[in-house]
Design goal:
Blueprint (H helix, E strand, L loop, with lengths): L14 H6 L9 H7 L3 H5 L6 H4 L6 E2 L5 H11 L3 E6 L2 E7 H11 L8 H4 L13 H11 L3 E6 L2 E7 H14 L7 H23 L4 H21 L8 H11 L5 H17 L3 H4 L11
Parallel strand pairs: 1-2
Antiparallel strand pairs: 2-3, 4-5
Helix pairs in contact: 10-11, 10-13, 11-13, 12-13
C-alpha cells in the first residue's frame, strides 16, 4: 500500500475561518477542509516513521562467487524469498525468486556451475535508514520492486519490504483516529504557527534586528512541535528541527535565509504530522496575498 506525497495547494486565511467551519452536529467540517486544501488529505497521511523503525535487521546475504545451489539451499533453510549479494561488505546486488524463474532456465547452465553474479539483479537500489517509510514506498512503486536493502555508512544494516511498510501504516493509522475534541486545539496551534512566521516576515520587512526575526521563527517552530504533543507524540526528534535551531543561533545567516529555512522546516512538519494534525496544517506566508 502506498500513499504518494502531494503538494500543499491551499490554506485558510484566519483563525475565524478555521474555527468556524462546522457541520450541523457541531463537529468541524471535513468537506470544507478538503475543498480548500486540494490534495492535502493524501499528503496528511504521510507517515513520519523512518525505515530504521520498521526494517528487518537480520538480513540473509551471499557472495557473488557462490553458486545457485548454495543460494537455493540458504533460501529454503531461512525461508526467505530474496538474498542480498555482498562483496567485501558492500551491497552489489540482490537475488530473488523472480530472478530464479526468469534467469536460471534461459541461462542453460548447470545449477552447480551457475554463479550468483550471473543471475542477480544489479545494480541494486539501496536506501538510508533515516528515510521515511512512504518515501521508501515511493521508490518501490517507481522502480517496480518489492524490497530495498538499507545501507548506513556503506554497510548493510537491514532490509525493508512492501509488507513492512504496509504494517507500519496500519499500526500508525490505527493509533491516530481524528477526534472532534482535539481538532480546535490543533487548529489553534497551526494558526499560531502561521502568525508567528508572519511576524518574523514583518520584522524583516521593517528592518528590525536579526534577533527579533529569529525569536518569532523559533516561536513558530515551537507551536508546530506543540501540535505533535497534542496528538500524543511529544518525544519525536527531528534532525531538521535541531539543525534549524542551530542555524538560527548562529551569526552566519541572514534574516531572509532564516525565513526560507524555517518555512521549509514548517512545511516538513506539516507534511509528516499524523493524519488528524496534518489535515489542518496552514502553509506559512509572509503577507495576506
Amino acid at each position: 500500500m502506498y500513499i504518494s506525497p502531494a503538494t500543499n495547494t491551499g490554506r485558510l486565511k484566519t483563525e475565524e475561518n478555521l474555527m468556524g467551519a462546522k457541520n450541523p452536529s457541531g463537529n468541524f467540517s471535513r468537506t470544507e477542509t478538503l475543498e480548500r486544501s486540494g490534495d492535502r488529505p493524501i499528503n496528511s497521511t504521510r507517515l513520519w516513521v523512518r525505515v530504521a523503525d520498521v526494517m528487518q535487521e537480520d538480513v540473509v546475504t551471499i557472495r557473488p562467487d557462490e553458486t545457485l545451489v548454495t543460494a537455493t539451499k540458504i533460501m529454503a533453510e531461512k525461508n526467505v524469498s530474496s538474498i542480498v549479494v555482498v562483496n567485501n561488505s558492500k551491497v552489489i546486488g540482490i537475488l530473488t525468486k523472480a530472478d530464479l524463474l526468469k534467469k536460471v532456465m534461459p541461462a542453460n547452465i548447470p545449477a552447480e556451475e551457475l554463479k550468483i553474479s550471473q543471475i542477480m539483479s544489479a545494480p541494486v537500489e539501496v536506501i538510508s535508514p533515516d528515510l521515511f517509510v512512504l518515501d521508501a514506498g515511493n521508490i518501490m512503486k517507481t522502480k517496480n520492486i518489492k524490497r530495498l536493502p538499507v545501507v548506513a555508512q556503506g554497510q548493510l544494516v537491514g532490509i525493508v519490504t512492501q509488507t513492512d511498510i504496509f504494517l507500519a501504516m496500519e499500526r500508525k493509522c490505527a493509533r491516530h483516529k481524528p477526534g472532534p475534541k482535539i481538532i480546535p486545539k490543533i487548529v489553534k496551534r497551526w494558526y499560531r504557527t502561521e502568525a508567528a512566521y508572519r511576524k518574523a516576515a514583518q520584522a524583516w520587512q521593517q528592518h528590525e534586528s536579526l534577533d527579533t526575526v529569529t525569536k518569532h521563527l523559533r516561536n513558530a517552530v515551537n507551536e508546530a512541535l506543540a501540535v505533535l504533543k497534542i496528538v500524543g507524540e511529544p518525544n519525536l526528534q527531528f534532525s531538521e528541527v535541531q539543525s534549524l535551531f542551530n542555524l538560527l543561533d548562529s551569526s552566519k545567516i541572514t534574516a531572509k535565509e532564516a525565513l526560507d529555512q524555517t518555512r521549509n522546516v514548517l512545511n516538513f512538519l506539516g507534511n509528516h504530522a499524523p493524519p488528524e494534525a496534518g489535515l489542518w496544517y496552514i502553509e506559512p506566508r509572509a503577507d495576506d496575498t
